[in-house]
Design a protein that fits this description.
alpha/beta; Rossmann fold; five-stranded parallel sheet; 14 helices; globular
Length: 408
Amino acid sequence: MKRFTARFLIFTCVMVLCLTSFAFAANTIKIGIVDSYSGPAAIFGIDMRDGFRMGMNEINAKGGVLGKKMEIVTRDEQFKPDVALAMAKELIMKENVDLLMGTISSASALAISDLAKREKVPFLDTYAKSEKLTGELGHRYVFSMADNTAMAGRAAGTAIAKKGYTKFWIAGDDMEYGHAICEATWNQIKKLNPKAELLGQTWWKVGETDFVPYITQIMAAKPDYIILGNSGASVIGFQKAAKATGLIQKVPIYQHTAIEFAVLTSLGLDGPENVAGTASYMFYYPQTAENKAFVAKFQKLYNRLPTMPAFFGYVTSQMVAKAYQKAGVVNKEKFIDALEGMTLDTSAVGKLQVRKCDHQLLYPMFYGMTKKVPEYKDFLIGTDIVTVPPGTGYPTCEEIAQLRAKTK
């Protein structure tokens, strides 16, 4: 009898725990985030997570979504695609997440996107720049909540083509992002300036730290403009080497994110001036009421200024909540239907919209030059900003459909 009673008590406790866990899960919307939280790219992953968390906490404080609280479960992919894929599988199979988010790495994002398609789980890319995600490799279950190489490259190419340079050199990290951003920029320059000539290309392995030999080779070719496809730590490393070798004083360069705060603050006042860059968010521009409010909230909460990924994270939190509210239920398929074509009328950079045809969130692009200014004592900022409206020069829905048709 005692043995039976003990077994009954154990069974009862287990059932109570299971029912409690089920009740808790039923009252939450679980979001799995796979991103870089260690290594040189960690600043981007941490800021995206914190931007999303800030927005999520604001939503939860108002009662959540559909009577449910949003919660996040994070995994560190260490900037490695194989690790990212394993972490995403774990979040789907063991954590039973309602949707996936991440990551800074384009290779990781493409791998997770393929998994999301197979498992029919929505995946929201929050920083990776590969235009393939919503281009030829796009599908129902992937959305891009960040800008991409097509947006940045075409905006930069449009601005650079007007400068009249004719002899170009391409260089960067030998990876998906590096090639894509350079190709998008160069194609736009060539389209608008038929006299432009590509003298050559230089590609180094991901993680390279010694750029002097490459710079020596580039300078020997005597280009009058350099297009760079750097990512992560090499953005900062190359700029330091370019300044030390005198390259930056002799040849103008374009480097996407060169005017982004995460890069500028890492370089400090030692960063080179007159480097052209693009960004779809900057805490110091535009000086709208919405941007000032976002910056103030983020700074008060985290005691630092927000970067571009922090803004992407915050915007994503608003879009996620709005999509679930519109869907009226926590359901993966209905969430996707609701997010397609959704707009965010007020943001720090103006009205934003997720295109229904390819699931790409369209941002304005800001092009400018790095410069020291009296207002900021510890870092440079982007100046002489030119704003390129959302969708300018971006592939049409018809072009996206044609791209996808070729890959089937």
